[in-house]
């Protein structure tokens, strides 16, 4: 059973997660980001737990470690549809995009980024910006990015105007591990 309090899950069996860790369940309260329950291994969630008086250890970030070269995106631009948009604050959104293969994770390591292309600059050229997904490789068939919407941000304004089902392009450059 999952009950969320300000983004903290009170109970969750890791057996219900895709690619669950082997051995006895060591799940503890975890961070809920978008629609995905993430193992609580990030510093931000530690401070959230600390403020809420929770003293719970986290288990290792098994879905964050991915060797280079496994990203579903390659050096060619790939259009993907927006499938969800969640407002976290007046100017911050989590955008969820569908991957070309519904049974595969994005395959990107922690801290690696992908390039997004959309909108247009003052000269009419497409705008390209790097984004580091916030979803882990436990999420199959989709991925999430956390975006602050800037008033003059060409790409962020384009993303903000996207409706569910609209497409944006992404690619991954091998050296951008």
Count the helices. How many? 2
Radius of gyration, in Å, reads 17 Å
The count of β-strands is 10
Q: Which percent bin holds the helix content? A: under 10%
Please tell me about this protein's structure.
- This protein has helices at 43-51, 154-161, and strands at residues 4-5, 8-9, 31-33, 36-38, 78-89, 92-98, 114-118, 127-131, 142-148, 167-171.
- It starts with a strand and ends in a 6-residue tail after the last strand.
- With 177 residues, it is mostly beta strands.
- It folds into two domains: 4-51, no CATH class; 78-171, Translation factors (Elongation Factor Tu (Ef-tu), domain 3).
- Helices cover 10% and strands 29% of the residues.
- The strands form three sheets. It has a six-stranded antiparallel beta sheet, covered by helices on one side. Strands 1-2 form a two-stranded antiparallel sheet. A two-stranded antiparallel sheet has the order 3-4.
- It has two helices and ten strands; from the N terminus they run ββββαβββββαβ.
- The longest helix is centred in the first third of the chain and has 9 residues, at 43-51.
- The model is unreliable at 1-51 (pLDDT under 50).
List keywords for this structure.
177 residues; mainly beta; Elongation Factor Tu (Ef-tu), domain 3; 2 domains; six-stranded antiparallel sheet; two-stranded antiparallel sheet; 2 helices; 29% strand; disordered N terminus
């Amino acid at each position: 059973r999952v009950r969320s309090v300000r983004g903290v899950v009170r109970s969750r069996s890791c057996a219900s997660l895709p690619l669950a860790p082997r051995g006895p369940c060591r799940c503890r309260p975890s961070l809920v980001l978008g629609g995905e329950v993430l193992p609580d291994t990030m510093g931000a969630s530690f401070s959230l737990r600390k403020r809420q008086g929770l003293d719970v250890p986290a288990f290792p970030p098994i879905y964050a470690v991915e060797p280079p070269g496994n990203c579903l995106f390659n050096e060619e631009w790939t259009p993907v549809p927006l499938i969800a948009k969640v407002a976290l604050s007046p100017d911050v959104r989590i955008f969820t995009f569908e991957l070309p293969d519904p049974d595969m994770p994005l395959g990107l390591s922690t801290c690696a980024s992908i390039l997004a292309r959309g909108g247009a600059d003052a000269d009419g050229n497409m705008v390209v910006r790097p984004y580091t997904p916030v979803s882990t490789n436990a999420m199959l068939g989709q991925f999430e990015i956390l975006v602050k919407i800037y008033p003059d941000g060409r790409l962020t304004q384009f993303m903000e105007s996207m409706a569910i089902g609209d497409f944006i392009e992404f690619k991954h450059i091998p050296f951008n591990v």
